[in-house]
Amino acid sequence: MGRKGKEIVKANLQEVISDLQKAYADEWLAHYQYWLTAHWIRGMDADTVKQILIKQSADELNHAERLANRIIQLGGTPIMQFDQLIQNSACGYKAPPSDPSNIKQVIQDVLEAEACAIGAYSKLSEKYRMTDVVTHEIFEELLEDEVSDEEQWENLGSNL
Ligand SMILES: [Fe+2]
Ligand SMILES: [Fe+2]
What we know:
Elements: H1 3-7, H2 13-40, H3 46-73, H4 82-88, H5 103-127, H6 133-159
Bound molecules: fe (ii) ion (2 copies).
């Protein structure tokens, strides 16, 4: 990153990078969880749920991309090993339900992941409000997305 760009970051650079890494891990795991679940599920309501999972799994990958770019911009390295994704993750990974027709479980698992992301981004966005405006902005925008994801799943869950 450029000299001035670095200069305006008042937060501890290693701490910012480590917070970005955690979020990056969570986004990859959410992307994978949603993508795999979309292809795995079967049954009556599966088609609607599948479409939303495909769309949101792409959104989570896009979130990971934004976080990776910021990590690199700050002079850090995005997580290079798959096992490190699990180890760095704050929200963890939930495999699709063993019964592919258990859509209720799918919705519950996604809602859990979204709630965890909302909690994390809300804290992180607050944390860097005054000390790293660019990172703060990214966390805030991702927070907005996850809030809208959660709402969509809650509505879907009550309509199925
Ligand atoms: Fe996300
Ligand atoms: Fe999401």
